[in-house]
Amino acid sequence: MIVGVPKEVKVDEYRVGLLPVGAEELTTAGHTVLVEAGAGTGSGIADAMYAAAGARIVSNAADIWSSADLIVKVKEPQSTEWPMMRRGQTVFTYFHFAADEALTRAVLASGITAIAYETIRDAKGTLPLLTPMSEVAGRMSIQEGAKYLERPQEGRGILLAGVPGVAPAEVAILGGGIVGSNAAKVAAGLGASVRILDVNLDRLRYLDDIMPPNVTTLYSDRHTILESIERADLVIGAILITGARAPRLVRREDLARMKPGAVIVDVAIDQGGCIETSRPTTHRQPTYLVDGIVHYCVTNMPGAVGRTSTYALNNVTLPYTLQIAQHGWQAVAKKNAGFAEGVNITAGRVTNHAVAVTFGYEYTSPDA
To answer: Which has fewest Cβ within 10 Å: 255, 331, 360, 365?
Structure first.
């Protein structure tokens, strides 16, 4: 099989879909690997490292898209890449379809098979290809939130940790999953006063056992959310419903309850955001103000720490890439029901139920 690795074109995206070790394993197995020149530069990986691993360096993305049977990426195909997608091709990447109907329509029209990292499940029912980037984004959310609480960044002028004699910042985390728990660890470690809200009581019991004393767990309902955002200097949106659009837990009118200069970091923005006033931003222009509240809604947060993120991502994606290249996605999906959940669209049909429901498309089982 011909495996193609184009350079990411999303603004300020520094990750790459395949490491040199992956290129070596694929070529050793008899596959051809095409890597666009400069694809690994943002992660500190030179073209020569790919070439030494057996990959062929290609000067432009169009040649990779036109030749490759399997495209391995990090972020969803951008509008400039849509015309290069071709029927019968398999694209393996993060898609987050529920947040982007235009992308969904383009992929349906192209006839490709779209296998989304974020909806593949393992034998335990968890999301192994989403987990490492959720860990990165959760930890980054506090790092970024702390920065934008500074007054020159239009924040409240609050030091997250406080100092002796001055109270630390109040942090409210909406969601106790991978993003939320990692955000809580970092915030608590810095000394902030942290609240985690979730609807899963078993998860809250677990978090209550493992978190330090400055973390409080609360059942998430409308009243608790409002009370928490009123107290908060920093709000982290960490809600995930696999494959579906994130529910909006904070409404526009709720911002009036918040402290002027408070910061919202909506990590759920990849799935549409869990704050009504959230809209996608980039690392170049990461924030904006609504009613005096700073919003940070960067859709590819882990892209800023490309080297860490690329290695963490490839640790979990490479085994699947090897299986797809060796056997084809149909055979892998037939043997592995968790992998089959990653097949979101194929041959112009929506094969992920959450995506179909989000946009009102007809759902087709991957088995069909």
So the answer is: 360
Q: Tens of pLDDT along 289-322?
A: 999 999 999 999 999 999 999 999 999 999 999 9
Q: Which residues are annotated as catalytic?
A: 96, 270
Report the b/e string of 192-213 with b at 16+ CB within 10 A. bbbbbbbeeeebbeebeeebee
pTM of the model: 0.91
pLDDT score at 244: 83
Instruction: Provide the β-strand partners of residue 218.
Output: 197
Q: Which of 129, 133, 127, 78 is nearest to 302 (CA)?
A: 133
Q: Is the pLDDT of residue 366 over 90?
A: no
User: What Rg value do the Cα atoms of the chain yield, rounded?
Assistant: 21
Q: For 77, how many CA atoms within 13 A lie in the half-sphere containing its CB?
A: 31
Domains of the chain: 2-127+305-359 (3.40.50.720), 133-299 (3.40.50.720)
Averaged pLDDT of the chain:
96
